[in-house]
Amino acid sequence: MGTLFLFFLRLGFVSFGGGYALIPMIEQESARQGWMTQDAFLNAVTVAGMSPGPIAVNLGSIVGYRTNGIAGAIVAVAGLILPSILMTAALLLLIYRLRKQLWIDRLFYGLQPVVTALILFAVYRLGIGRLGHGAWGGQLLFGLVIIGLGWVMLVRYRMHPILILIFSAIAGAAFLT
């Protein structure tokens, strides 16, 4: 459990960009440590993404639970959120004192491309990179249609995101299995 805690603690210290940016790192460590198979990890990402709350915390709790039960889930989540709590408190004090400095704005602006690249890499690894040769076109096209319909449902019809998630899950289960 110490390895689990230290991994998520380290991950918590470098978790810029939100949970989706952490998925490739969690996937790599889960495979290296033998915590989860690739299929189990993909299922865990799906469940974590559809569950309420941050995906990284949800995914950490699933990985922790699969390795050491409830205690593992608690240890993984504690390791993941402890750095955020400490760093948020420290940065809040620092930013409050330096809030009128121009370099602070430039620093946050400079982090945006890195976060975008990490999220796009996660999309590639979990989506496009996993498609089989024969199903590549059909699954990709279906995924793009679902994304488009979800966007229309959200923006045009102002549907609740939970309804869009339910629609996406049912459509995926009906047409991709």
TrEMBL record:
This is Chromate transporter. The chain crosses the membrane at residues 70-95, 107-128, 134-152, 159-176. Belongs to the chromate ion transporter (CHR) (TC 2.A.51) family. Its main location: membrane. It comes from the Bacteria. Pfam families: Chromate_transp (PF02417). One of its GO terms (cellular component) is plasma membrane. GO terms for molecular function: chromate transmembrane transporter activity.
